[in-house]
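Dear support,

Our group has been running a series of protein-ligand predictions, and this particular one with protoporphyrin IX containing FE is the one our PI (initials K.S.) wants archived with full inputs and outputs. We had some confusion internally about which version of the output was final, so please treat the block below as the authoritative record. The input we submitted was:
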Amino acid sequence: MYRYDQYDLTLLEQRTAQFRDQVARRLGDALSEEEFLPLRLQNGLYRQRHAYMLRVAIPYGTLSSAQMRVLAEIGLRWDRGYGHFTTRQNIQFNWINLEDAPDIMDRLAEAEMHAIQTSGNVVRNITTEQFAGVAADEVMDPRPLAEILRQWSTLNPEFAFLPRKFKIAISASASDRAAVQAHDVGIYLYRAPGGEPLLRILAGGGLGRTPMLGSVIREALPWQHLTTYVEAILRVYNRYGRRDNKYKARIKILVQALGADAFAAEVEREWALLCDSPSTITADEYRRVAAHFATPDYADAATDPAVLSAHLAGDAAFARWHRRNVHPHQRLGYASVTLSTKPGIAAPPGDVTSAQMDVVADLADTFGFGEIRVSHEQNLILPDVRQRDLFALWQAAGAAGLATANVGLLTDIIACPGGDYCSLANARSIPLAHAIQARFDDLDFLHDLGELSLNISGCVNACGHHHLGNIGILGVDKNGEEWYQVTLGGEQGQEAAIGKVIGRSFRAGEMPDVVDKIIATFCAHRLGDESFAQTCRRIGLAPFKARVYAQEEG
Ligand code: HEM
Ligand code: SF4
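Confirmed final output from the archive:
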């Protein structure tokens, strides 16, 4: 875990004191709401449908158990006993009183957390995959570079007023689990034949109303140039990005307008001025930061395959959970475990109660090295569990409602808060997620269907990543009523694709049947063990459309 030094602590202390004063002036009416707005947004405080909403960053998705307990405490003391984990490795609290916000910020700062740059037109929380540092298919650990980028981008005055918000993701594994291609800047970290870390840089990805995947603008960039290269991209964007129209302000529009090659050439020109400047990352600086992510004290002697095998053979439910929620680790005898936040109608996707957060912190201490990760699918992960402890962990997590064996399956739905909380929504997402989860509650059937992502956004802003879902659902407004549009063929990862709309939209009540028909079409056309995405790629949209719209046409 990265531990703050005196610079980090001083920065946060000054920031929270400043914010306390701003809130006091707002409450005393010395500041109008209009004057206060940019100040609170700089601190991750939104005004939503019912109350203030606070978004707290979880840099590259990593939390300590102590930090998780503080998030639980915030949920309990100042919210309604829960928090919502988002698709960008943040946690949101939905029911915050403005009066309490400074105390919350102080509490976060004590635990080395903050809400800085979780909103506004700045570089947002740097994200990476949930298994960073432990994934079996990892090329190298992306966390030190992610942390260096976090420090470089935090309160960087040159980039405090970008044309629009700016999202950066890094992945360093064979499978991209960070949706890198859907980010303003996406970075793949890989090794040269000699072992030297290199960067492939993509720019111009993003979802929202004009979804686009990023284009590769630079191959084989030596890692020392990460910050100067990103700086060059941001300078080009800051200079040429559109500020006249909010909907055309993201970097994806600039990359599209110029063409990826011309954009890349512009970045190279800017970078020529920055290359080898003092912001170049030195080996010493890399080592200093990387020391925070040192390998924990793994005990290879803990390997005891017989214990796990016996449990797998003896308990079908455990075996099922093991198949879906347990992931290969770099170290012999260890595994990473996903604690599902998708129990079905018991809770909205991503919502975790304070009591559950405390349980997760305890589990991280008991079964790991006190570390927790957050995935963009809105689940929680224990990265380092001894395989012989998996059965005990499964039982403990199950008692807290966190062991639903559905990771990567149809009911592992990504959903934004939608109309229940968000003032931008066209339609609700949560009841729809619940209706679909209730319809597909047969776990055996779900396991037979295999990998299948279903993502829901309550409006075109695409917070629920609906474009990247194999099945995507988008809330649309028709004369003040809630309707839902369906896309198929979206995919995340190395083979990322944006889903295509299948036709006219549906009312909420129709949606479980629509999903049913989509699944039936998949089952009818599936060859062998094909995944939904593979079948969809092979047969195209036509068979799905024919089935879903059959009655109208017939
Ligand atoms: C309730 C408060 C929220 C507000 C006001 C809000 C607002 C927005 C807006 C305006 C956009 C569109 C940006 C653009 O295309 O320029 C957006 C995109 C996005 N938001 Fe949210 N959002 C909220 C909650 C969330 C939540 C809960 C999540 C995760 C579940 C989330 C994750 C994202 C992601 C991943 C994108 C999209 C894609 C992109 O970068 O192009 N947001 N949000
Ligand atoms: S997609 Fe729309 S409704 Fe959902 S959280 Fe984002 S802005 Fe709100």
